[in-house]
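Pasting as-is:
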Amino acid sequence: MTSRDIDLSQRRTAVRRHWLPFLGFPVLVMCLVGHAAEVVTVLNDFESAADVDRFAGRLRYVYVAPSAQFKTSGGHSCEARFFTDCCSEGDTYIRSLYAQGDYAYRNWSAHQQFGLDVYNPQANELPLHLSFADGKKKSAAFKFSLKPGTWTPVHVSIGDLKAKGLDVSNVIEICIFQKLDEMPRPNRLYLDHVRLIGGDEAAIGAAKREEDATAGERRRKMPERGDLGEAVPQLAPQAQRTIRVEKDVPVVYETDVVVVGGGFAGTAAAVAAAREGAKVLLIERAGCLGGMATSGLVPPAMNLAVTEGIARELHTRCMEKGGPAQNRNPEIIKQVLYDMVVESGAKLMLYTLATGAIVEKDVIKGVFIESKSGT
């Protein structure tokens, strides 16, 4: 018997017959406990990084990753680390946006309960908040207590959602969060087996077929990325012709690694490679590092403290420069990123645009650049 066949909270033997393999879409499962048959629709079992990313549609002050350490179903769960040192007020939460993409499962009306298993590895009891939202922006919130060192089955009745005014035929969001004034310190939880429980099998099947048709119609009505329709006058296409220009291009720098783009990801890549001993060149078209967090002036959207490694180092060094607990000063971020690149030994070219790649046998061997100096 595997972990998929054990309910750790109730210690009851269960036999499950899968109707479909779980591929990140809602899956119908028959649970036979004793002589009672129960229909379960699996929303997410966190069996891959893609499943975790899909569930964590929007994050704030929390880091998520698949984990095989604790689980109640399948081989993995979702490890969620909640932080307290990066904000001074508000809630610390993880959101799942089920209205996004082809995997949407909005209609819960034929089911009886929402279920989620949560493991608290801390030595102390923790409160956990769970809220749901529908397409009309109405929400319903619930609070649970997680005992230390054990799995807690978190169940919410569909009837309770209805009683709070939620449209259970159009549930678009699940929000799992802790409140800062209730968090003794940064902590981690393990989430597993997000599901809808019970209900009439025939009614669930009918609701699912209707929802599939509705979701398909929604997708057909959505414009393709970049399709502006008739809102903007379109430039009439001209007959294509080409010209060939040959010229000698000077080699300005030879390196082991070239990184194009000095945003958070590019800067982290350059610093990491340089710290490993590689000769690194970082190219950035703007006059500073940081991308949208600095030159784009949207640092509040950057969760600097929700991951480990270089992102954590960046956040810590920004805090050391001074300022409020939630430090999102773009000028400080610029300086810290620059210092990290220089200290790593990587070379930096600002105001430099990569205009093409030198490719040999499907391998990029170099890049063409243009800069303010005319190179």
